[in-house]
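EI: anyone free to look at a 183-residue chain?
SC: sure, send it
EI:
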Amino acid sequence: SPFRYYGIYDETDYSQISWLGTRYDAEQLAEAQLKENVAANILKAWESHRQTRTLTFCSSILQADFLSAFFNKNGYRTVSLHSQTSEVVRKQAIKQLKTGELDAIMTVNLFNEGVDIPEVDTLLFVRPTESLTVFTQQIGRGLRLKEGKECCVIIDLIANYRNADVKHSMFYLPQTAKGKKEA
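SC: here you go
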C-alpha cells in the first residue's frame, strides 16, 4: 500500500550510549529510553499522525512494557508482546488489533517477518534500527494491501543514532537516465 513517512525529532543522545560493534549497550539504551518525557514525546507524535491499528517496534522488553503501560495510562488500549509472552496471548492480541479492540501492539523482534496483519495502518518506530534489512522487513508489516486501507503511516522517532541515514535511503527511488524517479 502507499505510505506516509513522518520523521519525528527525538532528543535521545545516542552518542552517549556505548556501541558494542553491532548494537547499543542494552542497559544504557534502556536508561535513555525509559523516561516519562521520552514516552510523552512518543505518545504526542503517535497521536498527531496515527490511524487506527498500530505496530510499535521497540528495542527491548523493558521499553515495550514501559510504553504499553504509559499509553494505557493515557487512555489507549495496548499490549506488549515479546519473547516472554505466550503464543496464545500473541494470537489473541493480533485478533484484537484486527478488530479494533486494541489501538497498538508494542513488540520486540516478533513481527519483523513472517506475520501478516493487513489491517495494520500505522507503524511506530521507537528504537534505533541498526540494520537496513530489519527496517525494510518491519516496514513491510504495514504495507500489506487491505480493502479500505488508504495508506500506511510510518512514524519514526529519529535521533542521532549510528547509521540513521542508511535506513532513509530505502525511501529514495533511483534516478533513470532521463532524470525521472523510477517506481
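EI: The longest helix spans residues 36-49.
SC: 👍
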